[in-house]
Write a structure and sequence with these properties.
GO terms for molecular function: oxidoreductase activity. With 259 residues, this protein is α/β, with parallel strands linked by helices. The protein has nine helices and seven strands, in the order βαβαβαβαβαβααβαα. The chain has one domain: Rossmann fold (3-Layer(aba) Sandwich), CATH 3.40.50.720. 44% of the residues are buried.
C-alpha cells in the first residue's frame, strides 16, 4: 500500500510542484486549496496515482478539523503533511485591512498548527510500523528577521520556524520527521496576492520547481531547516548575527517598491 501525502495550497506554485514530486516518488495524494477546478486539473494530470481532492478555504477557523474528519471518514491515513498554504500582504500594518491580516495569520499559523495537531497522532502510529511519516512546513527566509512593510507576514513565518524546530525536538527518535523549508523569493503567485509585484525582492525570485525539489529532497534526508540557494542561506546566517534594527532596515529596503 502506498504512503499518502496531504498537500495544502496544491492548486499552484510550490504546492503544485510538491504534488508532482511526491507522486513521482511513490505517494498517493490528498490535495486541498480553494480552487476546485485547478485541483481537478491536477488530479487529471497525475492519473498514475490516487489523488483525493478536498476543496477547502483554510482561512476558516475550523477548516483543519473538518479536513481531518473528512479524510478519517474515508479511512485515508496521512503519512506526510505538507503545510504549504500561506500568503503575504505588503503595506503598512495600520493601512492594510485588519480582516485580511487576520486571515493571513489563520492560514499561515493557526491552520498549519491545527493540521499538525490533528494528523500527528496518526503519523506516530505509522512511524512505529516503519512507514514514512513527517511534516514539511513551508516558512520563508522572512522567518529570520523582522520585516517592515510586511510585518505580520514576517512574524507569521518566524512562528512557523520556531514551532517546527520545537516540534522536531519533541519528536526526536520517534521516526516522525519535521522539516522546515525556508525559501527566499519564489516564482509563484505570492507577489501578485501580496500586491507586491514591483517589490525589489521579486527580481531575485527562484523557480518554484527548483525550490520544491530542494524542499522535497531535504525532507527525505531528514533536514530540519532547508534554505534553497546560497545567497538565501548566507542571508539567513547573517541575520542571526546582525542587530535586529539592521536586519529590519535591510528587509524594509527589499520590501520597497522604490526604484
Amino acid at each position: 500500500m502506498k504512503p499518502t501525502a496531504l498537500i495544502t495550497g496544491a492548486s499552484s506554485g510550490l504546492g503544485y510542484e510538491f504534488a508532482r514530486l511526491f507522486a513521482a516518488n511513490g505517494y498517493d495524494l490528498v490535495v486541498t486549496a480553494r480552487n476546485e477546478v485547478k485541483l481537478q486539473e491536477l488530479q487529471n494530470e497525475l492519473e498514475h496515482v490516487d489523488v483525493t481532492i478536498v476543496p477547502k478555504d483554510l482561512s476558516q477557523p475550523h477548516s483543519a478539523e473538518e479536513l481531518y474528519k473528512e479524510l478519517d471518514s474515508k479511512d485515508i491515513q496521512v503519512n506526510v503533511l505538507v503545510n504549504n498554504a500561506g500568503f503575504g500582504l505588503t503595506g503598512a500594518f495600520d493601512k492594510l485591512s485588519l480582516q485580511e491580516q487576520q486571515d493571513m495569520m489563520q492560514v499561515n499559523m493557526t491552520t498549519l498548527t491545527d493540521l499538525t495537531y490533528w494528523f500527528l497522532p496518526e503519523m506516530k502510529k505509522l512511524a512505529n510500523k516503519g512507514e514514512p511519516a513527517g511534516v514539511l512546513n513551508v516558512a520563508s527566509t522572512a522567518a529570520f528577521q523582522p520585516g517592515p512593510g510586511m510585518s505580520v507576514y514576517y512574524a507569521s513565518k518566524a512562528y512557523v520556524l520556531s514551532f517546527s524546530e520545537g516540534l522536531a525536538g519533541e519528536l526526536k527518535g520517534t521516526g516522525v520527521n519535521i522539516s522546515t523549508l525556508c525559501p527566499g523569493a519564489t516564482e509563484t503567485n505570492f507577489f501578485k496576492t501580496a500586491r507586491g509585484e514591483k517589490m525589489k525582492l521579486a527580481a531575485s525570485a527562484m523557480s518554484a520547481t527548483v525550490v520544491a525539489k530542494a524542499g522535497f529532497e531535504g525532507f527525505q534526508k531528514g533536514q530540519r531547516i532547508i534554505i534553497p540557494g546560497r545567497t538565501n542561506a548566507a542571508g539567513a546566517v547573517l541575520a542571526k548575527f546582525l542587530p535586529s534594527s539592521i536586519s529590519a532596515k535591510i528587509a524594509k529596503n527589499l520590501n520597497s517598491t522604490d526604484s
